[in-house]
Design a protein that fits this description.
The structure is a single chain. By secondary structure, this protein is an alpha+beta fold. The protein is built from two helices and five strands. It has a five-stranded antiparallel beta sheet, with helices on one face. Strand 1 and strand 2 form a beta hairpin. It is globular and about 35 Å long. The relative contact order is 0.22. The protein binds adenosine monophosphate (AMP) and zinc ion. The site of adenosine monophosphate has 11 residues, from loops.
Amino acid sequence: MRHDPECIFCRIVSGDIPGQPVWEDDLVIAIRDIQPQAPAHILVLPREHIRSIHELTDSDEALAAAVFRACRQVAAKENLDQHGYRVVTNVGEWGGQTVDHLHFHVLGGRQLRSLG
Ligand code: AMP
Ligand code: ZN
């Protein structure tokens, strides 16, 4: 499994930086965002260091399924499923990605503005 000792999310996954996962399984963990943009703001990330969705390959099918399953589980656990929620992943500099370890923001708990 790829691991980057310089990567903040890899350090959380390895327990190097203590964190309280909201949810976890063999492939994925979910943590609360340190700077929440909504009443519920959770980051779902693979344990493995993958830079972004742009680096996923066909062999990551099981991982992609696990990540989306985790998003659903987290949303249900945070009671976001009744009113709805948003799942976002940023890619690269212009996409607004600041941590180069694939993660999905699960946002909810208030009305979110339309992107359009
Ligand atoms: P992005 O800008 O899409 O790469 O998202 C990175 C997110 O990680 C931001 O929303 C940060 O607030 C969040 N973040 C950075 N460091 C930590 C940390 N140590 N624990 C939890 N969230 C973090
Ligand atoms: Zn990493």
